[in-house]
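Researcher: We plan to redesign the surface later, but first we want a full-length starting point. Tokens attached.
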């Protein structure tokens, strides 16, 4: 039986991935910060504690896998954050990178030796289309997802000779209720407040009409099952069209189109 780790498997994309993999007869090890508090577990999923902001927790989790051959790792756990760059608390940015990037990388390092020795394995990092199409007031979050994609894309060259695949799935707008849990840093008297509110309201509306977590889970499964894994899988938000536009249009034009779509003024230059 194929064994897969799915981080953040209690809700949203992680839960949908865990459910889909179980339906495909995977042995799924799902993670939660406190597995004992899960009120509605996915049937058949083996839940274990893991806090990606705590290296000691990651080591304990890895130690518990010593006798388990891990075939698949789906790095899904993460948090969202938004706010003007000027006003983002640096400790909040540090925590976001620890959870969305550094913890995920440390977990990859834990499973890679076994995958390399067995000459098989697949690592899927769940990113965001914001990594490819950054948006105002989402700088910290977009940066974490771009960093994770950078690790994945570069490491593909390193791991391929050992039969190990690593890739990134970039969802667009997803209807998972994430907007209600997104951490916001922008005070009512901020000089950025008007534009910040305009962008986040538009973003929230798009997410309410976004694709389902199950659609993203299907793309994750495709990435796992593809014989020749692609470097990037994008799903939702008219992904084929917008990636095509990015290839053929000048960056300044894409910037103007994005600003217009989110109600932002054109950039001005001091004279």
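Model: Full-length starting sequence:
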């Amino acid at each position: 039986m194929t064994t897969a780790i799915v981080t953040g498997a209690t809700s949203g994309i992680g839960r949908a991935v865990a459910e889909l993999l179980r339906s495909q007869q995977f042995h799924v090890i799902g993670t939660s910060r406190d597995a004992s508090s899960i009120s509605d577990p996915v049937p058949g999923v083996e839940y274990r504690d893991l806090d990606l902001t705590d290296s000691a927790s990651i080591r304990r989790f890895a130690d518990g896998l010593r006798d388990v051959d891990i075939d698949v790792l789906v790095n899904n756990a993460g948090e969202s954050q938004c706010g003007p760059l000027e006003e983002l608390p640096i400790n909040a940015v540090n925590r976001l990178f620890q959870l969305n990037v550094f913890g995920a990388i440390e977990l990859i390092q834990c499973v890679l030796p076994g995958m390399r020795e067995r000459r098989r394995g697949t690592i899927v990092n769940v990113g965001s289309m914001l990594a490819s199409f950054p948006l105002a007031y989402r700088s910290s979050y977009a940066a974490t997802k771009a960093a994770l994609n950078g690790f994945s894309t570069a490491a593909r060259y390193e791991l391929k000779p050992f039969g190990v695949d690593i890739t990134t799935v970039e969802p667009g707008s997803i209807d998972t209720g994430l907007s209600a849990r997104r951490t916001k840093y922008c005070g009512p008297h901020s000089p950025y407040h008007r534009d910040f509110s305009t962008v986040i309201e538009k973003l929230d509306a798009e997410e309410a009409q976004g694709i389902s977590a199950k659609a993203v889970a299907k793309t994750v499964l495709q990435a796992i099952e593809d014989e020749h894994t692609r470097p990037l899988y994008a799903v939702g938000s008219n992904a084929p069209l917008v990636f095509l536009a990015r290839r053929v249009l000048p960056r300044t034009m894409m910037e103007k189109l994005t600003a217009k779509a989110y109600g932002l003024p054109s950039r001005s230059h001091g004279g």
